């Protein structure tokens, strides 16, 4: 389907669609969080321990598929355009939710999770679309809107899933399918292409499509490899709370599901506020590199507060400091996008998504192991917040790299201007 649009139309329709895509897709994924483990448990005769093992396998499998497929979809979008890759992925995601809703046993459900990991890898293409249609000075703000969509989706999704799941464990899957397919219909009729044919790659190089081969792109521009290292460390740190939050606050403060859920909602709301209202302003005042350093500094301080908090009120104080950590991701993504050609944005975002996938695989193993060790040795160690300290260490390493980047690179406007040109 071809469309003739004015130059402003891709920006207006595109940003709206990409925001809706991220929001609906994250809601759809979040809807399954409260119900997937229970559906697995119902398939293994109610054995919680066995269900936990299979749930972990499903999570690792999903991360592996993200790691493998994100660079492939990114490269395909550089060659054939963002629109077809996005629409095919979203349609596949919708059909896959129906597949999982009808899955009669664990084998079929496992296949559904494999497909889900592949089709959900389209987030790399969505980020490439944002890079295509935004100017350098507005790019961080646009990436911040994507972050806000993620935060809002993870607030709404689990709440909706938990509500529907109490009536029927398969209803949330049907809702996820309906959301994804509605998004596909909206995109089919509204979404214009963002990457003109003259800016696309001419051929497909499958050697560069694998996660390792795609790293060659990071050597193509000064500073890009260092930024990728910052991105990896940042994503490693971000995995700490999805991995251990409920267990940690339950052990540390005696919180039950209600208190833990309340804190997660507060975190999500604060994150959305920062991404929507502060990212653009902070970048205008501090520049992208300055916002990156401020964001990482606040994350290091927040993780220190979280890990040592003697009571819940101090823990909430950490959230007030850590909220400004939301400046990190959009600023870093904008800096990276400015250093590659339009025909390479898909590959770049594919590499970023692949790193997120590998962090989602190894992060939980690191943090859960540290939490188990800290609790077992609490009598003499006295540090149940050890895994959060580890996350702070990852952020501290990222901060050192970011500070070196600020000192070593040319002035930001000059570098961005050269890349944009």
What would you note in describing this structure?
This protein is mainly alpha-helical and 421 residues long. It has two domains: 7-191, Growth Hormone, Chain: A, CATH 1.20.1250.20; 210-421, Growth Hormone, Chain: A. Helices cover 79% and strands 0% of the residues. The protein has 17 helices and no strands.
How many domains, as an integer?
A: 2
Kindly state the number of beta strands.
0
What is the rounded distance between the termini?
A: 30 Å
Question: What portion of residues belong to β-strands?
Answer: under 5%
Q: Looking at this structure, what is the CATH superfamily of the largest domain?
A: MFS general substrate transporter like domains
SSE pattern: HHHHHHHHHHHHHHHHH
Q: Indicate the CATH topology of the largest domain.
A: Growth Hormone, Chain: A
Query: Helices and strands: which structural class?
Result: mainly alpha
Number of helices: 17
Short structural summary:
With 421 residues, the chain is an all-alpha fold.
Itemize the secondary structure elements and their pairings.
Elements: H1 8-32, H2 36-43, H3 48-80, H4 82-102, H5 106-119, H6 123-133, H7 136-165, H8 171-190, H9 224-238, H10 240-253, H11 257-308, H12 312-322, H13 328-337, H14 345-376, H15 378-381, H16 386-408, H17 412-420
């Amino acid at each position: 389907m071809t469309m003739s649009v004015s130059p402003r139309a891709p920006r207006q329709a595109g940003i709206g669609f990409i925001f809706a895509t991220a929001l609906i897709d994250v809601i759809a994924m979040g809807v399954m969080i409260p119900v997937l483990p229970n559906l697995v448990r119902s398939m293994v005769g109610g054995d919680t321990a066995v269900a936990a093992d299979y749930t972990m396998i499903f999570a690792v499998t999903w991360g592996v598929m993200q790691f493998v497929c994100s660079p492939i979809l990114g490269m395909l979008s550089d060659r054939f355009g963002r629109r077809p890759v996005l629409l095919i992925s979203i349609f596949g995601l919708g059909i896959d939710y129906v597949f999982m809703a009808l899955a009669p046993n664990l084998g079929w459900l496992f296949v559904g999770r494999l497909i889900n990991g592949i089709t959900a890898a389209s987030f790399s293409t969505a980020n490439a679309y944002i890079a295509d249609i935004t100017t350098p000075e507005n790019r961080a703000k646009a990436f911040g809107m994507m972050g806000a969509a993620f935060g809002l989706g993870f607030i709404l999704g689990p709440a909706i899933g938990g509500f529907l799941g109490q009536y029927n464990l398969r209803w949330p899957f049907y809702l996820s399918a309906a959301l994804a397919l509605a998004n596909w219909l909206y995109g089919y009729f509204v979404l214009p292409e963002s990457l003109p044919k003259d800016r696309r790659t001419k051929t497909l190089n499958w050697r560069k499509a694998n996660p390792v081969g795609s790293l060659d792109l990071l050597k193509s521009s000064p500073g890009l490899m260092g930024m990728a290292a910052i991105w990896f460390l940042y994503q490693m740190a971000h995995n700490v709370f999805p991995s251990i939050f409920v267990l940690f606050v339950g052990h540390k403060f005696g919180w039950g599901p209600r208190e833990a859920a309340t804190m997660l909602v507060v975190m999500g709301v604060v994150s959305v506020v920062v991404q929507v209202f502060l990212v653009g302003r902070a970048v205008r005042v501090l520049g992208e590199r300055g916002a990156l350093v401020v964001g990482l500094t606040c994350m290091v301080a927040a993780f220190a507060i979280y890990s040592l908090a003697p009571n819940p009120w101090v823990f909430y104080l950490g959230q007030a400091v850590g909220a400004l950590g939301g400046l990190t991701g959009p600023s870093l993504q904008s800096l990276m996008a400015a250093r590659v050609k339009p025909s390479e944005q898909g590959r770049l975002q594919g590499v970023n998504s692949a790193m997120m996938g590998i962090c989602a695989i190894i992060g939980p193993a690191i943090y859960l192991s540290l939490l188990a060790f800290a609790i077992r040795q609490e009598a003499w160690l006295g540090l149940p917040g050890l895994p959060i300290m580890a996350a702070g260490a990852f952020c501290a390493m990222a901060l050192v790299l970011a500070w070196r980047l600020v000192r070593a690179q040319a002035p930001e406007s000059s570098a961005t201007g050269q890349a944009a040109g």
